[in-house]
Amino acid sequence: MSASVTAAHLAEFALLRFVANDLDDLERRRAERHLADCSSCREELERTRLLDASLRDVFRDAGKDEFGQESRLPAGDPYAQRPELRAQASGRNAGGPPGADLLASAFSFSRAGAEDAPRLLEAAASGEEAIARELESLDLDAARDRYCIQTALQKAGEGMSKDPENGLRLANRVLSRLEPPAENDSIEASIAERLVPLRLLAAGAQLLAGQACNWTGELDRGGWHLLAAWNLYGSAGATEFELALVELQESQRRSFASLPGEAIVLARRAAETFEEFGQEEWKARAEVTRGIALSGLERDEEALPLFRKALAVFNRLELWATYCSTLNSLGGSLRLLGRLEEARREYARALGRLAREDLPMVQALVYGNLATLLHRAGDYAGAARSSATAATLYAGTGMLLDRLLAELRRIESLACADEREEAFAALDAFRTEVASHGALDLSIVRALEACFAGAEPNFETLSQVLEEAEGYLRIGLSRRRSA
Amino acid sequence: MSENVLAAEGMATTLEVAERLLGDAVQVRRLVVYAWVRFRLPKEDAEDLLQETLLALCRQNERVRRPEGFVFQVFHRACVRHVRRGGREPSGSTACQGRRPVEPAYIPADAGIRIDVRRALNSLASTCRRILSAYYVEGRSMKEAAGFAEIASSGAMKTIDRCLKKLKQCLQA
């Protein structure tokens, strides 16, 4: 390494080592002699000091892995690099009113559109026909109506934890409404396109659909929606903030799809952008997502501080759905670390808060995880009760897959609690239910029954069959929905 | 988020901020000056980019909680893209050295430089990133970090030198 110091000019690395006081005595003396005679290297040294200070800042905020091996996605991954964003046409060159007037229109239409959005959301909650009718009544050549759709999509994203099916319904209907794109040369239509391009609306709908699929467990389908959002945002004059929103959802999806290493890269990139944009809440969400990915890599100790830091933000901002979901993740990591009592306290905190909120999906999630904890702690009766509560809550939100999975866990806990009669009854009900949906291979149902056939349930086999059944259910119900 | 929290935190909605900014000639001028000093962008171009920024803000009505940070970042990045497209070189000439704009609330100190350094880091050879990470994060000496990354060969040293040069260019931009 000393060669770099004795060269005609000091090499960059030598300068950085000089600034870092990292040269040995001989190297330092040589470097100092050279610097005394070389104004060019002295100037370069000053720039190196500046670089050193900037790097210290950046690395201090970034943490250990950001620029290490975990900072890349596999080659060919569509998310490996963000697309080069296309700029919108300039106001002066695009025709239409000059800047101030255009902005005044934007403010006015945006405000009016936001006022209309609840009507669209109510229609989505009422069902397919209502939302289709409501969307049909909107004029896509009117900026106000475009803002209305955009606001509704964003609000549905915020309320996703209340009813993902609603979100998915709205997203799909908006996408149908946007195809084929309207063709209209009127000034009104050109202003509408200038303020809210249809491609951005479509991107927002794809993002919402992808987000909903993360909740419903349709991960492949969600992946296609998110990729469509990614491509549309990239080509439609979006901002890096919107790309980060897609990365956040894609990161969650990859965690759920057992790709936590890739999820970390995306979550980190999103968090960085949210921080740069000054969006504390979104940064906290991205950090929670990173924590979930770390947990998937069995690095729960590293995930804990991320969850705790984010909790403080959500608590302060009164974002209760996100707050309770994060408590749920925190409880999950503590459970995986074997800190069962702490995990139970976090679940209790979440349930205490949820008792005051109307968030059945989040409640069901927490009860489901509490059941897993209690089962692991040997409280099988308690686990069965929690699973039953989770199943009931899922039933109320129309989440069939999650309800059936909760039922399966209940059956396992009942069997372990030696409540064989109840377990058989639950299995019977389960069999009838899945048969009506055609979602489970008959051989799996028979294998489940066989577990209870002897004098004692075969718990080892039961556990394996349950796992297999879960896989079948996911595939069967997902196919059914796609069809 | 409840409106109470917004009010308690003194947070304005995106539309309020956009309208306020548009009507605040001083803030607009500061952003325009920022675009000139940092990117050598003419006033007209900067105003157009600010308009695009405010339109983007209007489209985030339900998502953005702290619009000021959003405005600066979108504006800054729009300027960067504009410079790339138009072939204008970011400023760095003697004419503007030592002259920094009075920084409004929308412009965090050195924000642009930090973004550029981050981006440049992400585009560096992995060897170089590992060394810098080992030094700046793990507290190893440069020599240790280089040894740790097994880069004793002269070829690798050249790679590091190239990486450091690239990073320095960000500071000069």
> Which parts of chain B are unreliable, with pLDDT below 50 for 5 consecutive residues or more?
1-10, 89-104
The tally of helices of chain A reads 23
| Estimated radius of gyration of chain A | 28 Å
Chain pair sharing the greatest interface: A-B, 76 and 73 residues
Structure description:
- The complex is a heterodimer of chains A (483) and B (173).
- Chain A has a domain at 3-62.
- Chain A has helices at residues 3-6, 12-19, 25-37, 39-62, 99-126, 128-136, 143-158, 164-178, 187-195, 198-216, 219-235, 240-256, 260-276, 280-296, 300-317, 320-336, 340-354, 360-376, 380-397, 400-416, 420-437, 442-451, 459-482.
- In chain A, α5 packs across α7, α18 (360-376) packs antiparallel against α19 and α18 runs parallel beside α20 (400-416).
- By secondary structure, chain A is mainly α.
- Chain A starts with a helix and ends with a helix.
- Chain B has 173 residues and is mainly α.
- Chain B has two domains: 3-105, no CATH class; 114-172, Arc Repressor Mutant, subunit A (Orthogonal Bundle), CATH 1.10.10.
- Helix content of chain B is 66%, strand content 0%.
- Chain B has helices at residues 3-8, 14-22, 25-39, 43-58, 67-86, 111-122, 126-136, 142-148, 154-172.
- Residues 1-10 and 89-104 of chain B have low confidence and may be disordered.
- The chains are: A mainly alpha (483), B mainly alpha (173).
- At the A-B interface, α2, α4, α5, α7 and α12 of A face α2, α4, α5, α6 and α7 of B.
